[in-house]
Design a protein that fits this description.
With 347 residues, the chain is mostly helical. It has two domains: 63 residues; 264 residues, Orthogonal Bundle (ABC transporter involved in vitamin B12 uptake, BtuC), CATH 1.10.3470. It is built from 14 helices and no strands. The two termini are 29 Å apart. The mean pLDDT is 86.
Length: 347
């Protein structure tokens, strides 16, 4: 048993190494063609991510929503569902949390209001995920297309709120709504750019996700539905209900991530509150082979990329979007490796 687990871990590490190696090799060739040094860029990105505690804490502020979104996606992928709508679920969680935080002052104690906002974020994202599931079950709409459509709707709602009912006094700006009162900010110690509350909730959510998937009846039902929905009915499992539950759980964790962006990072609602973390979470879970164990480490890798890229325009006069090029190269490398493995298995 231990040998099998060890061999599986080695295979996963080797797979991730091959994918990142292919990606960095392709990006390096591009940089050489542009007369840029890959080593200098790698050094500056590393420096920008982990050279001091301020930068490490900034990197962790990116890691937290990435891991929350990835944890939610583990549920839906296990059930065989592609939850592309996770971006919209994160946005709706942020909107619901902001709506609660905008209640009249002095009506509810700040600590209780923050707790209600987090609950609202969970419910807002979960219900938005449920909509995608209902569209699939009742309307026959593939969850990919339903999720994309709901993403556009969520983005339209947040723009309408920021430029309409919730606009700043005398001005409607892409910078977002008015700042929340400081009593509604999650506390960050001096020198920290991430809140301990966000880190704690993120770690607890991931641990709970891993335990549910590996040690509960519901986790087994998710796996059965993902492997063969029709066959799972023979064991008394209802694939529709299991799929809806997976979408709700995934959306709820994404909604919590959106709430934490509002109360712990931006302290207001902004149009780009999701920052593309939902889509990046899809890549993280795919690179992890749809298994929980390596998700935090792959999320940490991409958080380092995102945080370190800020250093590039300052030192090397290179646009920070290079990290997006690396992420895209990782996607193509993962797809290439998956295709080669599938072809070899068929032979």
């Amino acid at each position: 048993m231990k040998t099998t687990l060890y061999q599986t871990a080695i295979k996963r590490v080797a797979r991730f190494t091959i994918i990142t190696g292919l990606a960095f090799g392709a990006v390096s060739l591009l940089l050489f063609a542009l007369h840029l040094s890959p080593l200098s860029i790698a050094h500056e990105m590393t420096t920008g991510a982990v050279s001091n505690w301020m930068r490490i804490s900034h990197m962790l502020s990116i890691w937290a929503p990435l891991l929350l979104c990835s944890s939610g996606l583990l549920f839906t992928f296990r059930a065989g569902l592609w939850n592309i709508g996770i971006e919209g679920q994160m946005v709706m969680g942020a909107i619901c949390a902001t709506a609660i935080l905008r209640l009249p002052e002095n009506t509810i104690p700040p600590s209780l209001l923050l707790l209600l906002a987090m609950t609202g974020g969970l419910l807002g994202g979960g219900i938005w995920g449920l909509f995608a599931g209902i569209l699939k079950n009742r309307g026959g709409v593939n969850e990919i297309f339903g999720g994309l459509g709901l993403n556009f709707v969520a983005q339209g709602i947040i723009l309408w709120l920021i430029f309409g009912p919730w606009k700043r006094a005398g001005i409607a700006s892409m910078s977002g709504t008015n700042l929340l009162p400081r009593v509604l900010w999650l506390h960050s110690p001096p020198g920290w750019r991430v809140t301990p509350v966000a880190l704690t909730l993120t770690c607890l959510a991931f641990i709970l996700t891993a335990l549910i998937l590996s040690n509960t009846r519901f986790g087994l039902q998710l796996k059965a539905v993902g492997k063969n929905a029709l066959a799972s009915r023979l064991f008394g499992i209802h694939p529709e209900f299991v799929g809806l539950a997976a979408m709700m759980l995934g959306g709820g964790l994404a909604g919590l991530a959106g709430c934490l962006q509002v109360v712990g990072v931006y302290h207001r609602l902004i149009p780009a509150i999701s920052s593309g973390y939902g889509y990046l979470g899809l890549l993280i879970v795919m690179l992890a082979g749809y298994r929980a164990a390596s998700v935090p480490f792959i999320a940490l890798f991409f958080a380092c990329l995102a945080a370190g890229s800020i250093q590039l325009p300052i030192v090397l006069q290179i646009d920070s979007s290079l990290s997006g090029v690396i992420q895209g190269a990782c996607v193509l490398s993962a797809l290439l490796l998956h295709g080669l493995q599938k072809k070899r298995n068929e032979q």
